[in-house]
Amino acid sequence: MADLEIRPATAEDVPAIVAMLADDPLGAQRESPEDLTPYLTALERLAADPNQHVMVAVREGRVIGTLQLTVNPGLSHKGAARAIIEGVRIHTDERGSGLGTQLIEWAVDESRRQNCRMVQLTSDNSRTDAHRFYERLGFTASHVGFKLQL
Amino acid sequence: MADLEIRPATAEDVPAIVAMLADDPLGAQRESPEDLTPYLTALERLAADPNQHVMVAVREGRVIGTLQLTVNPGLSHKGAARAIIEGVRIHTDERGSGLGTQLIEWAVDESRRQNCRMVQLTSDNSRTDAHRFYERLGFTASHVGFKLQL
Fold first, then answer.
1. Minimal Cα–Cα distance from A126 to chain B, Å?
2. What pTM did the predictor assign?
3. How many distinct helices (H) and strands (E) make up chain A?
4. B-chain residues within 8 Å CB-CB of A145?
5. Is residue A140 a contact partner of residue B147, using CB atoms and an 8 Å limit?
6. What is the DSSP letter of A24?
7. Contact B73 A42 (CB under 8 A)
8. pLDDT greater than 80 at residue A2
């Protein structure tokens, strides 16, 4: 199998990223692949922030996975930074290929390089396959994730 | 009761903030009130970042509450920013006074002002009183919060 590259996302990757965000039982209801403008604006803001890492996984020139890693400094835990993972998506054709594991392992390694003392993420209660996946990678389901839509 | 002020934390507030972080069944094991250096370093980094808001609640010159609000831009949800709340602490003497509600309501209002489409936080599975508190404030326990210590 050809080599996998994990690199920062650029504007050219946005159509492929948004297609993956929308190709999902939850994402289908809340994304707008027909209008990329808000995504391009958001990526500009993210690219300008050294604590933000929107990444794509690319094989043979094709974007097949994405995630966002945020380094979030804080006061608790003796002033520790935490890493937050959001927006993990794997192209339908690539599910079960181990790509999700490679992406999360990249994020964990990068979090260590940035001196984070913890990596955290939340996963919708309905995504039970994802929960088993994160537990296999060593994550602990120790918290309840609360959301308030504005 | 004297007026409550909610304002950004300064270096002078750090001893009171760390005392609150440590005065907690979980925090007691992981904070170092005897050495404030790492907290002061972290606060400098946080104060330089326009997406970070470490706040204190002050009454009659006394720091009685704190939280950290982070504005986290992202691609999903049509390029929406999310607000993340971390490190919510209320001084022991002030619990049950409604101060927690005032702090979270401040954070929700500020998140709206910053065009966030969601406010999110995680709470340790053991903090069942906190879970009821967030549900009363309109949050939904829709997610599982995963953590990996590094």
1. 8
2. 0.93
3. 5, 6
4. 120-122, 141-145
5. yes
6. S
7. yes
8. no
Is A58 a residue whose pLDDT tops 70?
yes
**Contact assignment for B76 to A123 by CB distance below 8 Å:** no
SS3 B129: helix
Q: Is B132 exposed, middle or buried (0-12, 13-18, 19+ CB in 10 A)?
A: exposed
Does residue A1 surpass a pLDDT of 70? no
A76/B15 Cα distance (integer angstroms): 12
Which of A17, A32, A146 lies nearest to residue B123, judging by beta carbons?
A146
B119 and A147: CB-CB below 8 Å? yes
Dihedral angle over CA of B53, B58, B64, B66, nearest 10 = 0
Q: Does pLDDT of A24 surpass 90? A: no
**Is any Cβ of chain B less than 8 angstroms from the Cβ of A16?**
no
ipTM: 0.92
Q: What residue of A is the nearest CA neighbor of B35?
A: A78
| CA end-to-end span of chain A | 44
Report CA-CA distances (Å) from B101 to A126, B57, B98, B105, B136: 29, 12, 5, 6, 10
Tens-digit pLDDT profile for residues A91-108? 999 988 899 999 999 999
Beta bridge partners of B58: B5, B63
For B41-60, what is each residue's pLDDT tens digit? Answer: 999 999 999 999 999 999 99
Beta pairing class for A62-72 and A52-59:
antiparallel
Contact B79 A39 (CB under 8 A): yes
DSSP letter, residue B2 = P
